[in-house]
Request: fold
Amino acid sequence: MDYSPDRRTALVLCGTGVHGAYHAGVLRACREAGIRIDVVAGHGIGAGTAALAAIDGGSMLWDDKGLWRGTGTDRFYRWHPALVVAGWFTVALAAVVASPLLFLLAGLVIYPVGFGLSMLGLSMGAWLVSAYGALLATLFSGENLPTIIPRAGMFAGAGIALSLLAGALLAGRRAPVRREGRVRWWWELAGAPLAAAPVRRRFADLLWQLIRGADDPKVPEPALVGRRYGEVLSESLGQPGVRELLVVATDLDARQDVVGALLREPYRGAFFASHPGRERQGDAIDLAAGGADRLLDLIGAGLTPGIGADPLLVRFAPDSFWKGEAHRLCDRPGALLRLLTELKASGVEQVVMVSAVPPVQGPHRLAPADVSIAGRLGDAVVAGEAATFADAEPVARRLFATVHAVRPVHNPLGPFDMRGVWDPGSHRWAEPAELLTAGYEDARRQFIDPVVGASGEHLATSNGETYGEGVRDTSDSWG
Reply:
């Protein structure tokens, strides 16, 4: 069946890290075209994008000073500062240990150069060889060699230990929730390499600036932000630019996904009703009721990759299903399938699935591998998302009347390439802002013009022109 604006429609955003820029481009194209979207849903960074889009805050993503065109995104998913400092001390330690051999190897250059200068009649050649011999004699003397290198090595080793200890102590002091681990203490010092806290703080700030009104611009505790968001979205449902919300995160301790939703009636009651053999209180959170306190936790968990970053530790309320337990939450690529089944339960009839991961191009299209830690983690995330998307499309076609996908043909940016990356395919440097533009153009080319335009829908554009011949009521549109 073809696209119809009369069906209950969901925009599904899936992806990690910088791929959120692609979501922003698609959102902008849908808003400018007046596409009717009833529910915005997402996992990964798509959860944060969906939360902003639900309350008509998408412009904070694509404006000139917005998230993906402004500054600060280069701090997302970087190495923890303590690991960076410890890494430099490790380099210094390696240099200290290898210094005797390095000084000896330097003779392979100094002696030939000195001999050549002497053959040219220059006194500098003899001086260079003499100075090098004196330096070796000093460094390898019985007074210096046994003391200098061990002392320098101890200094570098102490720097490594103190850096890791300081990082662990600061993380413990900043963490609102603590839970004892069952591993050796040194793993607590090391931790995961990538820091997800900066991107979590940035999305919390964006949401608060959008809903705070006349309150203090400083972001309050997460529960207060969630409650205010739930109030604003519940009171605004039905107004232009406001949509229902559905997000998914993964609970590592419960071994299941957690769904947060803010839906309008009559869909809300049916969605949160328990099913035979399945207790909805354990895996579904009503963001329109008391569960709104958990909104930032679910978004923060979505912004936390399942590999490479420490999961977000969340303590549930004592009167909740989990009775005050502290659980570890994060994202996983396979959450897309769960997202689709929950959208079906919320009454959605057609979906537009958005992913910044290109389809597989076939043989002989291999690109040079990024062997950095972030690059290897990003490749694993991208492979998982691509496989999940391929599995999810046929499932979606069985669940919904119509299914449409918006994906790039080519995207050199991995999930953690927040500062850009060299693209060997186009032989130039690719920036995250370009991914935003690609999402906008792909949405127009793959969905809006050929699908919605062909359906006879009236499409408003940014320059006042229209596509298609039909006229529709735009009181319930993105714009």
Summary: The chain is about 45% helix and 15% strand.
